Amino acid sequence: MKNLALFHEIAKNPYDYAKKVKKESGRKVVGYFCSYTPEEIIDAAGALPFRIFGRGGDSLADAHLQAYSCSLVRGALHDALSGGLDFLDGVVFPHTCDSIQRLSDIWRINVKTGFHIDAVLPVKLDTKSSGEYMADVLKKFLRDIENGLGVKIAENDLKSSVMKYNRIRSYLGKIYRIRRENPSLIGSRDLHAIVRASMVMERDLLVEELAALAGSLNDGKAAGKTAGKKVVLAGGVCNLPDIFSIIEDSGGIVVGDDFCTGSRYFEGEIGINGDIVESIAKRYKDRINCPAKHSGLLTRGEHILKLARESGAKGVIFLFLKFCDPHSFDYPYLKDMLNREGIPSMLFEIEEQLPSEGQFKTRCEAFLEMLEA
Amino acid sequence: MTGNSQTPDPEKEKRKIKSVKKMKEIMTNYYMEAKTAEQTGKKVAWITSGGPVEPLIVMDIIPVYPENHGAMIGASKMGVALCEKSEEMGYSRDLCSYARADIACAPANGGPIGGLPRPDMLVCCNNICGTVLKWYEVQARYFNVPLFILDTPFSHTGFSDEARKYVRKQVDEYIAFLEMVCGKKCDYDRMAEVGKLSVQGQRLWQAVLDTAAHKPAPMSAFDAFFHLALIVTLRGTSVVVDYYTGLLAEMKERIASGISAVPNEKYRLLWDNLPIWYRTKWLSEKFAAHDACLVADTYTSAWCGSLKYINENDFLGTMAEGYSRIYLNIGVDEMAETVIEMIDKYDADGLVMHSNRSCKPYSLGQYDIQRIVQEKRKIPTLMIEADMVDERNFAESQIETRIDAFMEVLKAG
User: How many domains does chain B have?
Assistant: First the structure.
């Protein structure tokens, strides 16, 4: 599996990768936040969609964001203010939580990274009118992207981007399933790197690499049963490859996730019949929601329960960025729902860097020890 | 019984706002009615503070405000115990303290008024924050009652036609929701009347706040925090119109007879963000001791700030935009402009900002607003790090030192 190294390299140094692509191909790079960004439209416009994560530092954010902001918004702003994101030709802020919402304003006022688009998506996703609004917003977004990049998006280009993304998502889903059924074939740390790299990589290349990887995994022989207790992870953004190693070193096997940087990114296919933008809108409306959006009162709980059951997980580990309000509000009900079904869970709040690695390992070990074999 | 400390200080008595008594009566009656709704057969809706209450009034539904409840909990200093209880329930200490306190109250009927009356429905408008969405989801699961979400897209740089259409549609959905829960039709004639009363109430509230532009100011932001309760809770009723008519007359009288909120008003300050409910008296006295009056604030004016988008003769048609473009649902730069307009209008000498851990939409962006104000108006600014209800986030001596230092700068200027 030679290309695993490629995914790891890109996931580790996404900025260098994007700069290289830009230099070599002359393509424009559009930064974005959150998995609700309709990347298909950016791709169809010929630009490289680039998901922004901070690289660790946050000191320059102090002049604009209080200490009670999450490390994602602080880290991203720091990078932008330090000039680290100067290679971007534009930035997209989809409406999600209060913090990203205000980050958009602060960014627009203080940062020069090309054009600035706010895609003010609906917050509720379970009504007819919100579905119509979602499609309206994406149509507006398409026009904004055209204006920002100075291009016209042809219907056919959009359609082929959608088909490309369908393939990307389907390969990612396939690789996840292979991992779930046969954890010895590919590490969860690798899986995480693949998803992270997918959000910044040239998508044509990505399709090829994912196809090759899925093929080689299919051919691979299972190296026998992996020892360990199966767990599912749930939360927002995970920016820490180490987390997976720690869990696995503590005796766990990650068999699924409900992460923005995991399965929420690639679930759901886009129909290619009918109005293409409306089909895109439907996918973003129907995929399992981020807790900053509303789609029923128990939807997320049922989803995580189903994930745990289908993957045979014995427990769930919640990993939240500290100061992430939407996830923290859902936690008590999710925990109760899992408890009632006899699935224990633990919560760990993380910053983008992991200063409390030892503490996390200790808690993981204690939690995993308690789980049924 | 002579000569004891019970004798009211005539100087202090003179300064007391007489309408307060009436306001207390109205609020007591309102809560009594809400608490006894089960006996009287009236339905109760819990609604967010920025939500459109007018259709509830039309449908004879009693609106109840968990945020107002949060403020009462804070003012009665019961916040810490309730917040701690919510943390035992699994809610992070970093979450909004209104939400935490209210969530902890529900199962225990706790708090200053023994809990809020049980809701028959929940109405959540996210024009103030994303937190209310999560909070109302929690309560909808707990009480197992229908939840209506009015989704008001954020206006970073403007309000799009797409958003206008979406919110307008939801206004109809909202009314259909109420008709379904109540099992009766909406009376649109009454809706038109209630809409007019709402606009009238908002105009009067703005007029009351405007009286503080007079030097010296007849009322302070601390008074506004108290008198605000009516425009929040009973907007769209004649009770509000009558009360603010009386309050406005009283303020005008105070101006005429030279009665000011602070005895020797020398410095005029603008307050930003929610009050620190458990310390309003302390802060008020602290500033007054420096001859400083908080003459206005961005918080209480939020309930009449989007009047410009509302046509009283087409309330239903225009309230979508009015409710979407309120102070908290707009970009930081537009908020900064509003702050500057207020500084000019009230002739403020300084800006006091409460960086409120509980409220990210209000607080994130304040550092930029502070900088913009300093650049454009060159007045001193003070940032107080605290929380509206959770007293554990209030460092008294540190805040006192900062206020003193800020006042020194003002006095030197």
Answer: 1
Q: How big is chain B, counted in residues?
A: 413
> Which element (helix H / strand E) includes A291?
none
**In B233-309, where do the E strands start and end?**
267-272, 292-297
B254 part of a folded domain: yes
Around A88, how many Cα atoms within 13 Å sit in the side-chain half-sphere? 28
In this structure, is the dihedral angle defined by the CA atoms of residues B106, B108, B112 and B113, taken in order, positive or negative? positive
**Chain A residues with beta carbon closer than 8 angstroms to that of B170:** 129
DSSP lists the bridge partners of residue B354 as B384
Strand order in A252-258's β-sheet?
A: A252-258, A229-235, A315-321, A345-350
Q: Give pLDDT tens digits for A18-36.
A: 999 999 999 999 999 999 9
Pairing, β B147-150 against β B292-297: unpaired
What is the nearest CA distance from A29 to chain B, expressed in angstroms? 23
CATH number at residue B310: 3.40.50.11900
Q: Write down the residue that tokens 């029923």 correspond to.
A: A296
* B168: contact with A, CB 8 A cutoff: no
Cα-to-chain-centroid distance, residue A122: 19
- Find chain A residues with C-beta within 8 A of B121's C-beta: none
A64/B149 touch (CB, cutoff 8 Å), yes or no:
no
Domains of chain A: 7-156 (3.40.50.11890)
For residue range A54-70, list pLDDT tens digits in order: 888 889 999 999 999 99
Whether residue A99 lies within 8 A of chain B, CB to CB, comes out as yes
ipTM computed for the complex: 0.96
Name the helix (H) or strand (E) containing B302.
none
